[in-house]
Amino acid sequence: MPSSAPTVAELAERFSLGVRGDATARIRGVGTLANAGKDQLAFLANPRYRGQLDDSTAAAVVMRAADAEGYGGTALVAEDPYTAFAKIAAVFEVVPVREPGVHPMADIHADAVVDPAAHVGAFTSIGAGSRVEAGAFVGPGCIVGEDCVVGSGSELLARVTLVTRVRLGRRVRIHPGAVIGADGFGLAMDAGRWIKVPQLGGVVIGDDCEIGANTCIDRGAIEDTVLEEDVRLDNLIQVGHNVRIGAHTAMAGCVAIAGSARIGRYCMIAGGAGIAGHLEICDRVVVTAMSLVSSSIREPGEYSSGTGLMDNRSWRRNAARFRQLDRMARQLRDQEPKDDTQ
Predict the structure, then answer these.
(1) What is the pLDDT of residues 293-314, one digit of tens each?
(2) Which of 7, 17, 70, 179 has its CA 20 to 30 Å from the CA of residue 111?
(3) Quick one: pLDDT at residue 1?
């Protein structure tokens, strides 16, 4: 919480927004359009919530110019209200103070290097040959294995595991329970039994990435698994070995990516989607929720698979007919009239 509540005018100037209404109103926090108090800021980005605007008690609302027409309250006018609201909300975020230093209950290998300006919490372990750079935060219970780098300003919030050969860029944020650099799932069949393929690569994560809780990113079999800069991964995502994810791509929870897939820049992969291995997805692709990507995508756009939700009785009938489609297509082809001129 800022020491003094900014006025609407001060927020407008700071974030280059327009003002309609009471520019002197002070803002002490943020809230939803339906529940914001008289000293809080809300936002209207989705037209489906337009009906809540007239009943809102928010001190000010971030909205588009078209929505501000005829609005009797105070508006901060933005081309993209959601983005503007996100920037303003950061003003009111409480950021904990993290003093530099190594907790006495941390275990630091003699060959590891921890910058004096880094913070290493209790019950952490830093392995041989690893480096924690200035301003980094390694929270309680984290394990940084051998030959890893935690870049400047990066945060391992708690119970994060970097197994081996993991390189984090600057300002990478990793949430609790994530495991980075575990063995990839590499197996070969030999005389009726599986043998393990050694995983000799590492993981390279670019600047400004964020990794959600309990997400797993496997290290490469030979070359590295790579996330370029500003990749955002939600919770419970599996990234297989040797995957490459392009810059500014975002993925929602429970996405699974098989080994050696290549995903382009500015892609958005919705929750529960599956991506098969050894394929390529070009830049600026949107994959909708629960879709299966089983072949390469070479043109930007929005892609879906599966069938829409329906009552179970209808679904069972349609599923039975789906198995008949190939036979029906062959019958239709056989019934097509012949061209006698050929």
Answers:
(1) 999 999 999 999 988 889 999 9
(2) 179
(3) 42
Please pick, among 119, 175, 241, 248, the residue that the annotation labels catalytic.
241
Which of 331, 240, 238 lies closest to 278 in space, CA to CA?
Answer: 240
DSSP at 24: T
Q: Are the CB atoms for 5 and 39 separated by under 8 Å?
A: yes
The values of phi and psi at residue 325, to 5°, are: -60, -40
Pairing between β-strand 193-196 and β-strand 187-190 as defined by DSSP bridges: antiparallel
At residue 339 the predicted structure's pLDDT band, cuts being 50, 70 and 90, is low
Angle at alpha carbon of residue 52, lines to 46 and 53, rounded to 5°: 85
Percent of the chain past pLDDT 70, that is, above it, reads: 98
Query: Cβ(178)–Cβ(202) under 8 Å?
Result: no
Read off φ and ψ for residue 215, nearest 5 degrees. -85, 145
Q: What is the pLDDT of residues 161-203, one digit of tens each?
A: 999 999 999 999 999 999 999 999 999 999 999 999 999 999 9
Instruction: Provide the 10 A C-beta neighbour count for residue 87.
Output: 15
Judge whether 278 counts as a catalytic residue: no
238 membership: H or E segment, kind and range: strand 238-239
Amino acid occupying residue 127: G
Angle between the N-to-C axes of helices 8-15 and 81-89, in degrees from 0 to 180, rounded to the nearest 10: 110
Q: What one-character-per-residue DSSP string does 107-172 give?
A: EE-TT-EE-TTSEE-TT-EE-TT-EE-TT-EE-TT-EEEET-EE-TT-EE-SS-EEEESEEE-TT-
Q: Is the pLDDT of residue 254 over 60?
A: yes
Residue for token pair 């020491």: 3
Nearest to 246 by CA among 258, 259, 233: 233
Q: Is 306 helix (H, G, I), strand (E, B) or coil?
A: coil
